[in-house]
Automatic annotation (TrEMBL):
Residues 68-84 have a biased composition (Basic and acidic residues). Residues 85-97 have a biased composition (Low complexity). This is WIYLD domain-containing protein. Residues 9-68 form the WIYLD domain. It holds the Pfam family WIYLD. Residues 105-115 have a biased composition (Basic residues). Residues 68-123 are annotated as: Disordered.
């Protein structure tokens, strides 16, 4: 049997892309997920672990990335609303923002904590 030519389409990443492209994931997202997982699990030697169970761990990472992307617009809209309210802050509210309307670390933590405790609006 002749040896397989290493070229376009014969790499492990291409197999992962083929697997998830059918499911509707973008090629760039699959590449990012695989790269992140390979970095966490020790480089190219981790491929058998990623391929195990029909790329189950890659799919979990893609779902995690998708959820982060869904949360990001919510956080950005909360931040923009908060920025408007702190821009008009007076010096009497120095505990939550400085004179330029920037949040302090303490107020950011409190806002994030309130978002986590409140949960999604639809629940």
């Amino acid at each position: 049997m002749a040896p397989r030519k290493v070229g376009v389409g014969n790499h492990r990443i291409d197999a992962a892309i083929d697997r998830f492209q059918v499911m509707g994931y973008a090629v760039a997202d699959v590449r990012r997920a695989v790269a992140a997982l390979l970095k966490v699990y020790g480089g190219p030697a981790a491929w058998p672990f990623l391929e195990e169970g029909s790329y189950g761990i890659v799919q979990a990472k893609l779902l995690e990335m998708e959820e982060e992307r869904k949360k990001q617009p919510l956080m950005e809209s909360d931040h923009s609303d908060h920025h408007v309210s702190t821009a008009t802050a007076t010096s009497s509210s120095a505990g939550t923002s400085d004179e330029l309307g920037r949040e302090t670390r303490k107020s950011r933590r409190a806002r994030r904590r309130n978002i986590k405790l409140a949960g999604p609006e639809w629940a």
